[in-house]
Write the structure tokens for this entry.
Amino acid sequence: MSRSVITLYDINSTVAQPWAPNIWRIRFILNYKRLPHRTVWIELDQVEPTLRMVGAPPVGQKPDGRPVYTLPVIVDPLRSGSTPFVLSNACTIAEYLEATYPARPIFPEGSRAMQALFVHYIQEIFVKPLLPILIPLTHQRLSERTQAHFRPRGAISTPPLAATGGLQHEQAWAAVKEQFNFLASILDKNNSDGSGVVAMGRDVSYADFAVCSVL
């Protein structure tokens, strides 16, 4: 069965459930569209060699010109004949899944531009204050092998944000609260006029998956 379903590559960790936001975004779409899929778990330090092996396209370049490989990545054998279709980048994957499997759409007609702006806000503004909190927690969720691979030489561990200074911790959470309050005020505009509680009112869409994946 594994050869006839979509494969989603995800990061192995010490917790019993998926946790990476960008990968959750794609998992939400696969589940919402009821597309059969399986997850392949890989260590963070094995992302690049694994993606090179399956033929995933890079998502950018490093300053020295070397390609950058990141998750999520999917391999879809269902609609591509004898050669599996390999895609990277959350937005690219979302567009592909919508075009290839249009049932239960995630882009209501005429909404793509507004949704693109909404998702850009989530990625570039809403998430940034969370990074000082999320990055130390992310490091703790990785396996010991992967923690050791990314740990600075001579360092014992990466301390949680709370241990790096009370003021820094307070400032980080204040910035997070400000962004959450702003997002809540935007979404409440739909709720206040009775048009629904999600980004598009009553229609679940890609924008909602971008928010929920961070949560």
About this structure: The radius of gyration is 19 Å. The mean pLDDT is 85.
